[in-house]
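FIELD: query
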Amino acid sequence: MALIEIDGAEKRYGDAVALDGVSLRVGAGECVALVGESGSGKTTLLRTINRLTALDRGRVVVRGEAVDEVDPVALRRSIGYVQQDGGLIPHWTCLANAALVPELLGHPDAERRGRRALDTAGLDPQVFAARYPRELSGGQRQRVAIARAIAADPDILLMDEPFGALDAITRHEAQEAFMALRSSARVTAVFVTHDLGEALRVATRVAVMRAGRIVIEAPAAEVAGKATGYAAELLARSGVSA
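FIELD: result
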């Protein structure tokens, strides 16, 4: 059984179709990238998994339970979530940000979990724990956001354009840190990106979206050989040959 199952997902915002009958399965341990241009539906689809977006039609099942039949707050606290801008609380230290979810869940060792998560995300707690987000580089802030997302040891991690605002060098370093984290934590991840080249590098499986539909879905190693039309265009823009 898949850890995440999405069946026939439909979502409209007025006359705009965000999701048009999308189905997707994510198995335990996979890293699935949702790729497409702005307005393709990838962020909307991501946010259905932790019920930040409610479907008009269709069904989302996480860990064998329909998300509309469970407590939404408990669901969100059980799933790591990294926003594009990090979403850090600016007047809290890095450690306080990292320990937020364990604190909300009532873990007595929330601070220890926060320190461990910072270390896992590639930030030495002795150096960064007492710093504030304004004192960090963009890449470091994003690592704190990742630390916050993993501090409570979730089995699922959702990431919305986590590296999109970073410069090329910092972006590469953040991608490396994320891949190392996935390897060590064995977390199942779904992440959104507009860069197909990034998806092929980081993900195990790729779903290319356009106009609210998945136009190609394949293991990352097979995408270049199967891409036609729109997917081939995205490959070319990413500097990858089809």
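FIELD: remark
The radius of gyration is 18 Å.
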